[in-house]
Amino acid sequence: MTALDNILLDAALAVILLAGALLLIRIRRGPSMLDRAVGVDVAAALMVAGIGVQAASTRTRYYLSIMLVIAFLGFTSSVGIARFIAVRDRPTPRPVPRPVPPKEGP
Amino acid sequence: MTAWHEVADLAGAALLLLGALVCLTGVIGLLRLPDVLARSSAATNPQTLGILLITAGVALRLRSWADLGTLALVVFFHLLTNPVAAHLVARVAYRTGQTGDCALLFDELAGSEPDRRN
After folding, report:
1. Contacts of A17 in chain B (CB under 8 A)
2. What pLDDT, in 10s, does the model give residues A2-60?
3. pTM of the model
4. Which B positions 30-89 lie with beta carbon below 8 A of chain A?
5. Which single residue of A8, A52, A61, B83 has CA 20 to 30 Å from A71?
6. Per the UniProt record, which residue ranges are transmembrane (chain B) (predicted)?
């Protein structure tokens, strides 16, 4: 374990924490529930990334099962929001789709 | 032997930092893009490439076959579940009219989709 390894791992952890903070801003001001669903999905990926950095820096293999469970179940929240909650949360009615004009020949 | 171990440790740490930076670029895109579909395409960036790089870094630092199998399962479930979630979110975004019609070049679902708004 050299010093350069420690610097790189601490930098990776700091970058992941910064990404999580920016993601919280998006979840806070997302205009619709679907933006928050995408944000929560990315939050699960960032959790997997942070646990991976922790497991690599302490060389512990017991974190890997937690990574596996989050990778397997992290998408259920966004699927639940997309299937059941976003249907009630309709901001504006969709305009009637205008017919596509046929393309003129040269 | 120890030289190889040190090289693997250093490469693993560098891969972890690179994966973290890819995750950060995805989150920045999530903050700056204007639309649900564009944000969804930016959100797949940390979820696939970042997780791939980070699991490669962890595998280079742990160096055992059992951990390599677990990490391969992590990558497999990410690659399996992310398209499902992205597809559902994009479909609901289209049906509830949050796609931002002016940015679409083609709208192939225009007349084919049953209107379930009511």
Report:
1. none
2. 788 889 999 999 999 999 999 999 888 877 888 888 888 899 999 999 999 999 988 88
3. 0.81
4. 30-31, 36, 39-40, 43, 46-47, 50-51, 54-55, 57-58, 61-62, 64, 66-67, 70-71, 73-74, 77-78, 81-82, 84-85, 88-89
5. A8
6. 12-31, 43-62, 68-90
Q: Do B54 and A79 touch (CB under 8 A)?
A: no
The whole-number pLDDT of residue A74 equals 82
A67, B77 in Cβ contact below 8 A? no
Size of interface A-B (CB pairs under 8 A): 190
CB interface of A with B, residues 43-62, below 8 Å: 45-46, 48-49, 52-53, 55-56, 59, 61
**First-to-last CA distance in chain A?**
70
The contacts of residue A63 (CB under 8 Å, 6+ apart) are: A51, A52, A54, A55
Cα–Cα distances in Å, from A85 out to A69, A77, A88, B37, B81? 24, 11, 6, 18, 20
Q: How far is it, in rounded angstroms, from Cα A69 to Cα A75?
A: 11
Based on the number of CB atoms within 10 Å of its own CB, is B4 exposed (0-12), middle (13-18) or buried (19 or more)?
exposed
Identify the DSSP state of A105.
P
Q: How many Å apart are CA A43 and CA A57, to the nearest integer?
A: 21
Q: What sign has the CA pseudo-torsion B58, B59, B64, B68? A: positive
pLDDT tens, position by position, A73-105: 888 888 888 887 766 655 555 555 666 667 666
Asked if ipTM goes beyond 0.90, one says no
